[in-house]
Amino acid sequence: MVGVEAQDREAVRALLAAVRAEGRDALTAPEGRTVADAYGIAVPGEALARDVDEAVAHAARLGGRSVLKIVSPDILHKTDAGGVVVGVEGAAEVRAAFHRIIENARAHAPAARIDGVQVQQLLPPGQEVIVGAVTDPTFGKVVAFGLGGVLVEVLKDVTFRLAPVSADEAISMLDSIGAAEILRGVRGAPAVDRWALAEQIRRVSQLVTDFPEIAEVDLNPVIATPEGAVAADIRILLTTEVAKPRRTYSREEILHSMRRLMQPRSVAVIGASNERGKIGNSVMRNLVDGGFPGEIHPVNPRADDIQGRKAYKSVTDVPGEVDVAVFAIPARFVASALEEVGRKGIPNAVLIPSGFAETGEQALQDEIVAIAERHGVRLLGPNIYGYYSTWQDLCATFCTPYDVKGPVALTSQSGGIGMAILGFARSTRTGVSAIVGLGNKSDIDEDDLLTWFAEDPNTQCIAMHLEDLKDGRAFVEAARATVPKKPIVVLKAGRTSAGAKAAGSHTGALAGDDAVYDDILCQAGVIRAPGLNEMLEYARALPVLPAPRGDNVVIITGAGGSGVLLSDAIVDNGLRLMEIPADLDAAFKAFIPPFGAAGNPIDITGGEPPATYEATIRLGMEDPRIHALVLGYWHTIVTPPMVFAELTARVVEEFRARGVEKPVVASLAGDIEVEEACAYLFERGVVAYPYTTEKPVAVLGAKYRWARAAGLLT
Amino acid sequence: MVGVEAQDREAVRALLAAVRAEGRDALTAPEGRTVADAYGIAVPGEALARDVDEAVAHAARLGGRSVLKIVSPDILHKTDAGGVVVGVEGAAEVRAAFHRIIENARAHAPAARIDGVQVQQLLPPGQEVIVGAVTDPTFGKVVAFGLGGVLVEVLKDVTFRLAPVSADEAISMLDSIGAAEILRGVRGAPAVDRWALAEQIRRVSQLVTDFPEIAEVDLNPVIATPEGAVAADIRILLTTEVAKPRRTYSREEILHSMRRLMQPRSVAVIGASNERGKIGNSVMRNLVDGGFPGEIHPVNPRADDIQGRKAYKSVTDVPGEVDVAVFAIPARFVASALEEVGRKGIPNAVLIPSGFAETGEQALQDEIVAIAERHGVRLLGPNIYGYYSTWQDLCATFCTPYDVKGPVALTSQSGGIGMAILGFARSTRTGVSAIVGLGNKSDIDEDDLLTWFAEDPNTQCIAMHLEDLKDGRAFVEAARATVPKKPIVVLKAGRTSAGAKAAGSHTGALAGDDAVYDDILCQAGVIRAPGLNEMLEYARALPVLPAPRGDNVVIITGAGGSGVLLSDAIVDNGLRLMEIPADLDAAFKAFIPPFGAAGNPIDITGGEPPATYEATIRLGMEDPRIHALVLGYWHTIVTPPMVFAELTARVVEEFRARGVEKPVVASLAGDIEVEEACAYLFERGVVAYPYTTEKPVAVLGAKYRWARAAGLLT
């Protein structure tokens, strides 16, 4: 809490109500100042002059040089209207400026109501920054910070956080922009007062949190100096749009229904069929062929027996408790079947059919959501391929069963991406705990799944493809609770589609959807994958690697050329090449030819025997100052690929048995035998790729990003 | 030519000589001004004041407000020394400023020689930019342009070109910075005089071209306004370092020796051996087993017969003309054998052995280079795996033969990367015309190879891994001559290693090695690959795709989710989604379900039969307004992967037969059958990848970059 007095808050409430009563959605400068004063947002001394004599008197009282600005509820862009004069001093200059401003305003907008001219203290020169807040459709109130001026508006060097922010979060924003260095003082310029600046951010964030009806706030510019941070201008815009409250469930409710979804004992298939090619046939076969050990109950009013199991006319006829009802019937029949599911008290409905919101049938979707809410049924979908819960041998999809059990849970909003997940997993033999289609997300969405996967002992890594979030704040909350336990990889599609969003303020224009997503996902500790393939590779590789315990990465390579490329990748992925201490350098040198290079990368040179790889990798694992190894292998006759793979896996396993675990990744440059060697290494805990120096380091970088977000590294 | 009078040039020459004679390497401000005047570089009116009265007189004569600056050969950073006062007007202010500057300078550097104080016209407010020139170790004289001020120094938004630049090149620099928009005027600010600014760049580039002894020039800032561009400050630094002239060959000489290297009729193997495991044994076997139809002559003083062929004591004993001598002997024996190669008149020596500059034996390398130059022998290597010329069935390496003949020539500086090239090519069945190891590049380097590959009818695409360029200008020249004919892909390693380079000027500090490489390679029309895997994928895919004839890219997808990701990739890769005209939109709509989306991406929706894919792809090929297709396939039972692959390949082939060629790339989302479908498509001219939406579009982006550089698109 910012420490705003209740009476100040009430004064703001009254002021905003008055503005709304007048049918305005923009506050005037004096109104903005009143709000700023109430919230302790520092602004320059100023006063409203209704005539030229008042202007002269105010200027004299404020002292020094002044800025004069038009005050009109009808003129938003004061500069464009010729309504601003900067740096006047003395009665004559003030008089002239006053008259010029009024004339310009009349010329610009003859019908504009003019309340007068604001006389403001001219702020000392300093670094211009912008502090603002907007209402994001996904995340709600969001604060923004960036360097001010035309340059930054063009370069879009801005950062965002969920409002309200703490003092520490506000300070972190100062370091999150590209030009952060400038605030610390460059080329002899002094550093600005960082805490004063952070305080402006914090207070703005509190203001928009307290008043949801404030759509946007702009402090632009804030003049930051070594002595403080003062907002030269404040703009506040109101909105009548109020976000519809979303039905929420408690954590216990979510875990209870998700457990029955992901670990069911009894599944009903509504629309089960004996006819090959029908979805209800595929789902039944996949449940049976996948080896699901629980009860499987086909429901079909026109059959007595489906795939050798007794069929029921209605789900209400199924005996005993049912955990999941999988729908494989056309959209138009879903509502009535869902009523029966509700009456039966089944907690989960998996809606495979399409033909809802995605085809424009929003009303049909709203209808089923209403039915589900009435009965307390959670909905997965509609418009999905279904879901896999591999440790339960549960394949409730119309695709094909997948049986490599493992630690990765994957979800996708799109069916096509879901199929790509399945194909990739099968091709790379990725161990999977679950694959879940989310489709239209009429109810269950990413935050429900995160809440479950965070608790699921079979899941060690979560990867999610998403195009939007129904409730960004719920997602962030679930992600923050999950990340300390396991990494979350997100592929956010539609990064670039947002394009120009109509916005009434600078901050609004800067808050392209993706900029906000990017900053806030990062703050939530999520690893954002740049593309589909990266999401899949991170998901496959992250659980294989142990968490690093420190920042010191060492490259050991048999090919100098790989060493250079691996070093590039280290920097690209935000990692740090360890500066090797003299004793360690000497220890490595003892193993490598005299013309090899210790330092980092450690270039053992090509043509070395297995013993050289082994001795140097062993030393890398042994020395506690080293926290992660990146290996560059060069295919030679002296050390063939499988020999390298075997010795590397053996050394890593030996240390693991002794309790020493470090992430080890490898880039294998060589003929096609390196592919087999990579598969061998991957299965044994070393993330290895052929023909690329980038992928292994990108995966290591993702692991480090998670370790930092999880608080495992200082 | 800038049109500098001969007498002005001579005046500059004399001035620079005088500065050198005094043992200085930095020009004073008045000296800088003299140079600027000679080269027509616009600077403000100014004069040197030796005492305070002169200062007052100069200020009065120049009129308006003035800037006063210390003039001392010993004070480089005037601001840091408190040696600059801005905006003084009237005798009293000038007097005070003069005294303050002298006091500050004395305090800052008591021993500094002080020539006086420069009184300069205060320039009108405008956009600050920086124009400069540096001497790059690879590219020689290079001009730089960026927005001025602390902000840009921090954000490093600068662009570089080889000096001298033409007026058009200079103008292109204004558009090559991230903040280019600012110069065109944003938020009501007027645009600057672009041609005046370009003229400043052009003149600086001419100055450093005329005087190689000028190491660096800084015009910082240049004040750009709608009326002109004037340099507020000019700094010039001299150097004594003169680049050693490199031995050069004419184009005809290069083509002649390269033809004999790449299409030899007779090859001698020096150090050929019967002993398995020896390099001389592998090379002999690979030549023989690879099926090389020319003569193969083993040379070994201790054998009469090697692998069934007559062996010679010395290469001088080999009968007839020999085109290539492959060295497979230890480094210490190379020099004497090379003498014999020279005496025999063999034009090419391929030096596989290591143990030269890369292990610190620079003297040994210098010795063999001297021998080679004396005899006119061109050297490939040393320290390489050898080379492949597949259309000649020539495998002169110690690796394994590679027999998929095709259009791609690949080169690598590193042996490890060479092995990765071989493995990748074999794994993906990439058709290859040559693979060449360059190693230490003691002689033959990338520009020789480019000159050859540009002419080689078997080569349609060239991909090069490099860590440095021996002669950046020769490379650029060869690249510019090649690009109109075929694409060049470059993987430049060591992007990030350059780090902090000692530099005496702003421009120098901005010219991190990689920034210069990046801009200049781009200007040369080269496609820079961000990593090893991308280089390999571009090399494999570029020759498969026809060149696009225009910018209109259309996405046709069966999975909406892929459509979103493909759209992201389109923007990321600098491509443009076509705005679909109404008639074309209607034509697409006729083929897709009512809830599908035309527009672009064209979402045909999941679950559609082959006919829908075929009709829409056919329309995409047919309509001449569409220039490239990106396909998103979603694996369903209705349209299985191979059905999609077959119909797509068939339609593309049908149009090709009718003379309609457009690049078509595809992203296949599905179960593992999509891998086979991708291979099928790739072989038939459609670049297709499974489990990724990024790669196909990245390849299309690379093809577009080439098409633009080759002048095929306006």
UniProtKB/TrEMBL annotation, chains A, B:
Per its UniProt record, what SMART domains does this chain match? CoA_binding (SM00881)
**Domain CoA-binding: start-end pairs:** 261-356
Matching entries from Pfam families are given as: ATP-grasp_5, CoA_binding_2, Ligase_CoA_2, Succ_CoA_lig
Q: Which UniProt keywords apply?
A: Ligase
Q: Which GO terms describe its molecular function?
A: ligase activity
Q: Which InterPro entries match?
A: ATP_grasp_subdomain_1, CoA-bd, Ligase_CoA_dom, NAD(P)-bd_dom_sf, Succ_CoA_lig_flav_dom, Succinyl-CoA_synth-like
Record's signal peptide:
none
Q: What is this protein called?
A: Acetate--CoA ligase family protein
